[in-house]
């Protein structure tokens, strides 16, 4: 039995190693094209065309949250998760690319910005805005990084289970033989996370934005193709019928009522989830990807294809998640449980199904696909925090000419290492829901959304108004997060309750955050001095 | 390197064109259709396997893609392909 288990884990382990080696090779190869300049390292010399931009932006926005989180949340909440985040993102993400991305690209290329903070400092003619935004943006990127790092460790552990039971035993009280078969003998999550972080760090180090874009494109192709293959294989294995559509039919019928409807989901909560994807308008790593575009028209392919790509990735994941709640899901081996309890660890539902329902070699490839989705977000986030540190702190403090390009690339790399180390240490804690972590992180970015829209479209925005908006955003986020930690149901279920006409309506906390920012920003802007005329002429030439 | 004079950023098209209004209208329709209260308790399986609520929202994704395709044709915000250098 033990030998069989070890043999079972070995193919997955080897394929993961080969895949990670390929990524390292790609990063090293792209470094040969590196021109040695800061601009090439940070924005690939603005040379990226439509296809690479589409794939890199999609790969960046689709993280562990999309694959591991969506299937896990569908397992818990049913098919409503697709409407809450996927179809809404198809509308809102492209809206952000269209209304914000193209416009900031225009200003950034004209005035030579690479980071959001450079844009806001110039637009508002104010340094304090940058000093406020820097810790907030970095502080919110860290939980986003955590989503990826934690998921990577969980995926590697679940998919290599059985590799070395003596070396990496996982005990479970009440489990068969006193072990947790879903993860027993797998590479421990801490080691898997560490390996993934190291690989991404290496190719970001050597390849910069060009390496990141290429790796993203490669990984996006990998996870999209393998995601669809996973869906076919799991459907056929769970359904146990002759044909694929017959399998789909029996699996569809096996989904419990609450899984295939939204009977247990609040309509107002669903509606207010629409504000979560607004976060894309303020993601610093996405801003940096926008800057890589060669031309304004480069954005067109991304704007059109992004909703379709989301559908291709999310529909199979959501179906697999709800199938896992049905009667066709084998009772043995049991789904992995959270440590110290009998609650299913929803984050591990997808990797567990891949592990138990596919052949070892295919399972190894599918593991690589899931890791691809995770790493294609981590790399952009790593690069952007380093870039922000160099441009918004070092250059802003000491002057852009104080250091050579080589030194600036070094600063970028060193800050990346520091943040990744902090994130890795935080990942060793016990985070129960990747989905909840992601939603709170996205809510924070969404709360700053009014700021970027006003900066681009409202002449009346003042520096004081922007500062008031930022302070309102972070204050409301912190207060609501604290309230969420006190809630008996926990952060993942925390909602505001709006009493109207004797009824209580559930509202996502993000609504309060966005409106706090909006009201503070508008009110303070209306009563404080307007920006200088030359600043307005620079950003609103038509209305000068 | 791009220059950084005040006039270096290419101008937007002035005002809201009929194309932009069309896209704004379609986005509002999409957001209304997104709140599909009428399918909330419906457990029908479309094509025998797809929960109808999920199929509806997959349709929203396709409609969103079509709307954004139209946007690139009738309401693209920039006249110039590249900023002045």
UniProtKB/TrEMBL annotation, chain A:
The chain crosses the membrane at residues 12-30, 51-70, 90-108, 128-150, 187-206, 218-235, 270-287, 299-324, 359-378, 410-428, 434-458, 465-482, 507-528. It comes from Rhodopirellula europaea 6C. It is a multi-pass membrane protein. GO terms for molecular function: L-proline transmembrane transporter activity; proline:sodium symporter activity. Keywords: Cell membrane, Ion transport, Membrane, Sodium, Sodium transport, Symport, Transmembrane, Transmembrane helix, Transport. This is Na+/solute symporter. Belongs to the sodium:solute symporter (SSF) (TC 2.A.21) family. The lineage of its organism: Bacteria, Pseudomonadati, Planctomycetota, Planctomycetia, Pirellulales. It is found in: Cell membrane. PROSITE patterns: NA_SOLUT_SYMP_3. It catalyses: L-proline(in) + Na(+)(in) = L-proline(out) + Na(+)(out). InterPro entries: Na/Glc_symporter_sf (IPR038377), Na/solute_symporter (IPR001734), Sodium:Solute_Symporter (IPR050277).
Automatic annotation (TrEMBL), chain B:
This is DUF3311 domain-containing protein. The keyword Transmembrane helix applies. InterPro entries: DUF3311. The chain crosses the membrane at residues 15-33, 45-71. Keywords: Membrane, Transmembrane, Transmembrane helix. It holds the Pfam family DUF3311.
């Amino acid at each position: 039995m033990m030998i069989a288990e070890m043999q079972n884990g070995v193919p997955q382990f080897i394929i993961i190693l080969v895949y990670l080696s390929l990524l390292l090779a790609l990063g090293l190869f792209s470094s040969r094209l590196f021109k040695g300049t800061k601009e090439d390292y940070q924005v690939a010399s603005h040379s990226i065309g439509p296809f690479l931009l589409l794939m890199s932006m999609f790969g960046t926005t689709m993280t562990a949250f999309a694959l591991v989180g969506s299937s896990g949340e569908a397992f818990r909440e049913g098919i409503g998760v697709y409407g809450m985040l996927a179809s809404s993102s198809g509308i809102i993400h492209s809206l952000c690319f269209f209304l914000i991305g193209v416009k900031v690209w225009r200003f950034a290329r004209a005035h030579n910005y690479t980071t959001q903070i450079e844009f806001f400092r110039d637009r508002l003619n104010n340094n304090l805005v940058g000093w406020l935004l820097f810790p907030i943006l970095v502080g919110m990127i860290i939980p986003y990084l955590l989503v990826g790092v934690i998921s990577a460790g969980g995926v590697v552990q679940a998919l290599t289970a059985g590799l070395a039971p003596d070396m990496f035993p996982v005990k479970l009280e009440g489990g068969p033989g006193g072990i947790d078969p879903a993860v027993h003998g797998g590479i421990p999550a801490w080691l898997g996370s560490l390996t993934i972080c190291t690989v991404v760090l290496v190719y970001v180090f050597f390849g910069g934005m060009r390496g990141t874009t290429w790796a993203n494109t490669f990984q996006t192709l990998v996870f999209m193709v393998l995601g669809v293959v996973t869906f076919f294989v799991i459907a056929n294995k769970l359904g146990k019928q002759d044909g694929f559509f017959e399998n789909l039919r029996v699996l569809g019928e096996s989904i419990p009522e609450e899984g295939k409807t939204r009977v247990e989901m609040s309509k107002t909560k669903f509606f207010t989830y629409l504000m979560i994807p607004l976060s894309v308008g303020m993601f610093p790593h996405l801003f940096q990807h926008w800057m890589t575009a060669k031309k304004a028209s480069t954005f067109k392919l991304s704007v059109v294809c992004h909703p379709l790509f989301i559908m291709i990735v999310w529909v199979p994941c959501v179906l697999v998640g709800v199938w896992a709640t049905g009667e066709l899901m084998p009772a043995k081996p049991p789904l992995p449980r959270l440590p110290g309890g009998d609650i299913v660890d929803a984050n591990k539902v997808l990797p567990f199904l891949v592990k138990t329902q596919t052949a070892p070699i295919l399972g190894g490839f599918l593991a690589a696909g899931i890791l691809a989705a995770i790493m294609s977000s981590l790399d952009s986030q790593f690069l952007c925090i380093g870039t922000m540190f160099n441009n918004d702190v070092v250059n802003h403090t000491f002057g852009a000419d104080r250091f050579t390009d080589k030194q600036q690339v070094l600063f970028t790399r060193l800050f990346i290492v520091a943040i990744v180390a902090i994130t890795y240490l935080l990942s060793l804690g016990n985070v129960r829901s990747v989905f909840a972590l992601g939603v709170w992180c996205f809510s924070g970015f969404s709360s700053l959304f009014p700021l970027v829209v006003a900066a681009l479209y409202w002449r009346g925005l003042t520096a004081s108004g922007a500062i008031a908006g930022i302070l309102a955003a972070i204050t409301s986020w912190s207060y609501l997060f604290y309230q969420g930690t006190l809630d008996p149901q926990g952060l993942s279920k925390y909602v505001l309750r709006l009493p109207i006409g004797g009824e209580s309506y559930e509202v996502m906390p993000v609504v309060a955050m966005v409106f706090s920012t909006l009201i503070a920003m508008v009110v303070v802007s209306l009563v404080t001095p307007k920006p200088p005329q030359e600043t307005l002429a620079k950003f609103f030439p038509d209305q000068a | 390197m791009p220059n950084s004079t005040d006039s270096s950023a290419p101008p937007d098209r002035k005002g809201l064109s009929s194309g932009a209004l069309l896209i704004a209208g379609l986005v509002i329709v999409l957001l209304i259709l997104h709140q599909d209260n009428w399918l909330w308790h419906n457990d029908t399986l479309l094509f025998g396997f797809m929960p109808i609520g999920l199929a509806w929202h997959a349709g929203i994704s396709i409609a969103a893609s079509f709307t954004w395709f139209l946007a690139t044709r009738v309401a693209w915000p920039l006249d110039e392909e590249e900023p002045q250098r």
